[in-house]
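Q: Hi! First time doing this. I have a protein sequence and I read that you can turn it into a structure. Is that right? Here it is:
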Amino acid sequence: MSDKEMNVESFNLDHTKVKAPYVRLAGIKTGEQGDAIHKYDLRICQPNKAHMEMPALHSLEHLMAELSRNHTDKVLDISPMGCQTGFYVSLINHDDYDDVLDLLDKTLNDVLIATEVPACNEMQCGWAASHSLEGAQALARDLLAKRNEWNQVFA
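A: Yes, that's right. Below is the predicted 3D structure, encoded as structure tokens:
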């Protein structure tokens, strides 16, 4: 690993020292008008040890993106990490960590009772054939089972 500071925040995180699952504030950006974007690292799988399968990850992304907005209008984006170990959750003007945990808890509980994946069709999705409601629900169930660990980032 390089001692040089990288431009991407997560590239400066020692992935060998974290212990998934966790929710970590990964950065804050403040706009010219004072709006603040808080980006959270929602790590589901242990880096370099496990990853989410794409259909389950894809469906969990759709479900969380849609269902989280039933609980707040502060969600800007929920995006999967390319390494398939978690998601970035970005909120505007919302810096209450415990409230973010509650939002994720409510959203994941909504995932458990969902009967379909939102926008799971060729008109609304770029890879509509790659979805698994059951896989997304299994990920949500596993993550909720470790809810008490979410605030512990390092082993």
